[in-house]
Amino acid sequence: GLMWLQHGGNLRHTSEPNDGVSRYGWLMHDGENFGVQEIRDEGLLLRTEFVKQPGGEHGGDWSWRVTAKMEGKGPAPLLSLFFYVATDGQGTLRPVLENGTRLAAVAGTAEELGDFTLTFLPPTGEGGEGPKYASYNFLAAGVPGLHRLTELVRHSLRESSVFSPPGRPRRRFFGVSGTGGLPGEP
């Protein structure tokens, strides 16, 4: 799934009536093999797209793309995207790091799927031109149910991370601490 945070705004996980998100919904969806949705949140346009390629013993391969754009003029605020993977107690997950820092993939196993890998490609600009600069961190934690994921991420947010793209000023951004859990949970 996906959570997002515009700096100076609220951590978002879902779009519900009366939560301040101006518009959200599926633009296209065939119920099985592809879908495109848009979320508009305080000048941010998030577009998520998925496509499924059938095959194999467990339903096929899925690809998912997230595009973030600011509407209007002016400098774009920093945006944190939080992609999450959870097994809901039905399997195991292991982070796969590139250069010891960038979360390149999550490897896992589940009874229904067997062994699987989710791969995170570096971000690119419009039209696929070169990678965009991004900073990465990840959180590995247990949570007593998927309904508590937003609370877990909110509790783990740290503004101590620094975004420093080449040739640009350093700026602080919110990231998650490397490990952790909910207060009062083992």
Automatic annotation (TrEMBL):
GO biological process, one term: protein N-linked glycosylation
Membrane topology: Single-pass type II membrane protein
A molecular-function term among this protein's GO annotations: Glc3Man9GlcNAc2 oligosaccharide glucosidase activity
EC identifiers of the protein: 3.2.1.106
Region feature (Disordered): 160-186
Protein localization: Endoplasmic reticulum membrane
The reaction(s) this protein catalyses: N(4)-(alpha-D-Glc-(1->2)-alpha-D-Glc-(1->3)-alpha-D-Glc-(1->3)-alpha-D-Man-(1->2)-alpha-D-Man-(1->2)-alpha-D-Man-(1->3)-[alpha-D-Man-(1->2)-alpha-D-Man-(1->3)-[alpha-D-Man-(1->2)-alpha-D-Man-(1->6)]-alpha-D-Man-(1->6)]-beta-D-Man-(1->4)-beta-D-GlcNAc-(1->4)-beta-D-GlcNAc)-L-asparaginyl-[protein] + H2O = N(4)-(alpha-D-Glc-(1->3)-alpha-D-Glc-(1->3)-alpha-D-Man-(1->2)-alpha-D-Man-(1->2)-alpha-D-Man-(1->3)-[alpha-D-Man-(1->2)-alpha-D-Man-(1->3)-[alpha-D-Man-(1->2)-alpha-D-Man-(1->6)]-alpha-D-Man-(1->6)]-beta-D-Man-(1->4)-beta-D-GlcNAc-(1->4)-beta-D-GlcNAc)-L-asparaginyl-[protein] + beta-D-glucose
Domain Glycosyl hydrolase family 63 N-terminal residues, every copy: 2-120
Alphabetically ordered keywords of this record: Endoplasmic reticulum, Glycosidase, Hydrolase
Entries under InterPro entries matching the protein: Glyco_hydro_63N, Glyco_hydro_63N_sf, Glycoside_hydrolase_63
Pfam family for this entry, one: Glyco_hydro_63N
Gly residues bias locations: 177-186
Superkingdom per UniProt: Eukaryota
Major site of localization recorded for this protein: endoplasmic reticulum
Record's GO cellular component terms: endoplasmic reticulum membrane
Family label: Belongs to the glycosyl hydrolase 63 family.
Job description of the protein: Cleaves the distal alpha 1,2-linked glucose residue from the Glc(3)Man(9)GlcNAc(2) oligosaccharide precursor.
Protein name: Mannosyl-oligosaccharide glucosidase
Organism: Rhodinocichla rosea
